[in-house]
Amino acid sequence: DAGVTQSPTHLIKTRGQQVTLRCSPKSGHDTVSWYQQALGQGPQFIFQYYEEEERQRGNFPDRFSGHQFPNYSSELNVNALLLGDSALYLCASSQGPRGGYTFGSGTRLTVV
Amino acid sequence: GQQVMQIPQYQHVQEGEDFTTYCNSSTTLSNIQWYKQRPGGHPVFLIQLVKSGEVKKQKRLTFQFGEAKKNSSLHITATQTTDVGTYFCAGPGGATNKLIFGTGTLLAVQP
User: Fold this and answer.
1) Strand B32-37 relative to strand B43-49: parallel, antiparallel, unpaired?
2) Considering only CA atoms, which of A98, A81, A86, A91 is closest in space to residue A24?
3) 20 to 30 A Cα–Cα from A49, which one of A97, B11, B50, B111?
4) Are A46 and A62 in contact (CB under 8 A)?
5) Cβ atoms B68, B52 nearer than 8 A
6) If you measure CA to CA, which chain B residue comes closest to A105?
7) How many other C-beta atoms can be found within 10 angstroms of the C-beta atom of residue B99?
8) Helix (H, G, I), strand (E, B), or coil: what is residue A35?
9) A23 and chain B: CB distance < 8 Å anywhere?
10) Which residue from B minimizes the CA distance to A48?
11) Are A52 and A30 in contact (CB under 8 A)?
C-alpha cells in the first residue's frame, strides 16, 4: 500500500479531449506534486500544490492545470490532449514541500 | 535549466556482484534523494542526504553525497535479484522546492 491513491489506474482518450486525474495524499501529508513519466525516462515535474495553491511549475504548457482541495487531495487536468501526452502520471505527496516524496501507483494515460 | 545526469544508463550484473550508480547535478543541491522504481511500478523513496560528504547505509546499500554537494552515488554490495529496477537520484531545482529527477540507472541482475 503506497499510501497515496490515484485514480483511475488506466485511461484511454482521443486527441483533443480533456482528462482529469485524481490523487489522495498519504495521511499526514499536505503537499502534492504531479509528475509525467514517459516510457524509459525519469519523472518530469509538472507542478506542486501546497496550501491549495500552485507553488512551483515545471516546463509544461497551460493545457496542464491543477487544483488542491481543503482535504489536500488534488486533481490534474489536461486539455486538448496530444498523442505526446501519453505517459504515466504520478502523484507524490510529502509533509511540506521539501519532504521525501511518497508516490502513488500512477495513472497510465494513452492518447489515440 | 538545472540538469541531473546519472551513469551508467544501464547495468547488467551477475547476482552477488557489486553495483554503483553515479549522479551529477549541474548546480549545487541542498539535498539529494534516491528512489527505486521496479519494472511497471512507481518510484519508492529510499533515502535523503543533506550534509556535504554525508554517507548513509541501508543494509547492502551505501549512499554518498559529494563534498561539493553536486554529486552523489549509490553502491549496492552483493546484488540480489530483488535489487532489479531503475534507481533515480533527485534534488531540489535551484531555489525552488520542485524535485528534479535524474536520468536513472536501470539495474538488471542475472541469477
Assistant:
1) antiparallel
2) A91
3) B50
4) no
5) yes
6) B42
7) 26
8) strand
9) no
10) B98
11) no
